[in-house]
Amino acid sequence: MKKFTQWILLLMGWLVLTTRPIADEAPEVVTSIKPLAAIAEAIAGDNIAVNVLLPANISPHDYSLKFSDIRALRSARLIIWIGPHFESVLQKPLAQRSDEQLQVAQLTELVWPPQDAEKDSAQSHGYEHDGFTRDLHVWLNPMNGLVIAEAIAAELSKKYPAKAAFFEKNLQTFLEAVTRLDAVNRQRLAGLRERGFIVMHDGYSHFVTHYGLTQLASVQLSGGITQGIRHYGQMMALGERVVCVFSEPQMDSKPALQLAQQLGAKNAELDPLGMHLNSGNGGYPALIETLVDTFVDCLSE
Predict the structure, then answer these.
(1) In the sheet where 196-201 sits, what is the strand order?
(2) How confident is the model at residue 144 (pLDDT cuts 50, 70, 90)?
(3) Quick one: CATH architecture of 17-184?
C-alpha cells in the first residue's frame, strides 16, 4: 500500500508539472537555429525570451522534434526559420501557423550568389538533394544578416507595438555593428582571395561570393550526401591549389582530415551553425568574425 501511495503521489506531481499553463514557461520567440536566434536577441533585447529549437551540434535536416519542441512551437508568438527545405522537420508543425512565423528564405531583399539568383523561382528555397539548387545558408552573408534583422524588427513591432521604438533602436545598433565588421572583414580577406580551399559541404556560397574567395570543391553536397569516388579523384587532382580543407563540428570530420593529409594541405574547422555561440559572446557578429578568423588562419602562409 505504501508503494502504491508513493506511486500515486509521483503521478499527481507529474500531472501538475505537465498540465501547467504553457504560457508560464514558453518562450515568446522561437528560432530554428542559433544564427537566427543571435540576430533575434540583438533586436529583442533582454525583455523578450528567444529560444533555439534545433541543437547546433547536428545538421538541421537530421533532427527529430521532441514533445517539448512541439509545445514551444504551439505557444510561441513568433517562430523564425529558414524554410521547409532547410528545416524540413518544421514544415508540418508550422503549416497552420502562417501568422506567427517568419520564413527567412522568402524575404525578397536577400542577396543570392549569382548562380542561385539565376535559378527559377520555383527552385529557390532548397537543397540539391531535395531537387532544389539554392544554398540556404543565407545568414553567412552579413548583408543578409542585415535583411534578416530588419524583418525580425518589423515582425516584433507588429507583435509588440508598444516596444517598436526599442526594437528600432536595437536594429540601428545592429546594422552599424555588422556594417563596420564587414568592412574590416573585407580588408582581412582581400589578400587571400586567390588561395584555394575545399569545404566539408556545399553550404558556403553566400560567404564565399560575398568576400570573393576561391572555393575549389566540397567534400559533400549540402544535404550531407557523399559525391562518390569520381569526385574524390577530382579533388585529389587539384593538388597544390588546395591550401586548406575545412571540416565542420556537425559532420564526421574524418573525410576532410584524410583529404587534407593526402593533399598536403592544412585543415581547420568551420562552424556555420555557431555551436559555441551565445548572446554573451557577441552574438551574430561573433559568428561571422569567427568564420573570418578561421579562413584567415588557414589560408595564410
Answers:
(1) 214-220, 196-201, 242-247, 266-269
(2) very high
(3) 3-Layer(aba) Sandwich (3.40)
